[in-house]
Amino acid sequence: MEIREFVETLDREGRLLAAAAGEAGVDAKVTTCAGWQVRDLVRHTGMVHRWATAFVAEGHTSYHPDAGLPDLDGEELLAWFREGHRGLVDTLAGASPDVRCWSFMPAPSPLAFWARRQAHETTVHRVDAQSALGREPAEVPPDFAVDGIDELLLGFHRREKSKVRTEEPRVLRVRATDRPDTVWTVRLSSGPPLSERAERGHADKDTDAVDTDADVDVDCELAGPAAPLYLALWNRVPFPSVTGDASLAALWREKSGITWS
User: Which H or E element spans position 176?
Assistant: First the structure.
């Protein structure tokens, strides 16, 4: 996806998040984030938006701490969120393609990193906000979901911070069933997961058995349409399908959460 597409997604998803938060009310429980109310979600996401904006707008070339959560509530909080979201969208849309600033995962450029990261950050939290309404959230576009799975498996969980580890080597496969032959192989060990994405066929698409891609012996497969699979890997919804050793799906649920620190 292009930077422009990520910024457009960020724009749309942030507006949807604000609308859902306003409709649900700040006291509503966020069913996808245990222990959070809508006010917690809006404060967190708004803080992240301003934090990201500062890197691009102010050109910080090393880590710069966030400004903390605001002491705001109700309509004031929602207005603060909308203002920060608009500032992030405008900053990314107007930034020079060769802007230099800090980022924390590999990307073609810092601007590409921040546009992509904030598009996915905001999309997942839009789903959270809509979950507080007690109805099904709007669907995530499949191609964007595939990109988000890439970011999560090939970016976040390649870092030393990842806690998804096993004492003995195991292999987890992730398959997007509505994007033909889009498959990620995740090699688990005592170190950070090593993931790779391949787009290729395999022999037993119509069976429930866990098969192999090429010469890879797979212990567990997580499969389903890209959008619910994306949200499941972010621990927002159940996995659409688990075959093989279900303890690896449970391990993902227990250890894969990305926390703010």
Answer: strand 170-176
pLDDT tens, position by position, 166-185: 999 999 999 999 998 899 99
Decide: helix, strand or coil at residue 187: strand
Q: What is the strand order of the sheet 241-244 is part of?
A: 194-199, 182-188, 170-176, 220-224, 241-244
What was the pLDDT predicted at 260? Answer: 83
Q: What is the dihedral of CA 21, 27, 28, 30, to 10 degrees?
A: 80
CA distance linking residue 158 with residue 124, whole number of Å:
20
The answer for residues whose C-beta is within 8 angstroms of residue 160's C-beta and 6 or more apart is: 192
pTM: 0.93
**Interatomic CA distance for residues 48 and 179, integer angstroms:** 31
Q: How far apart are the C-alpha atoms of 19 and 31, rounded to whole Å?
A: 17
How far apart are alpha carbons 251 and 189 in whole angstroms?
12
pLDDT band at 199 (very low <50, low <70, confident <90, very high): low
Return phi, psi of residue 221, to 5°: -120, 135
- pLDDT at residue 24 tops 60: yes
- Separation in Å, CA 122 to CA 195, 220, 233: 24, 30, 16
Query: Token pair of 101, please?
Result: 């600033």
pLDDT in tens, 221-257: 999 999 999 999 999 999 999 999 999 999 999 999 9
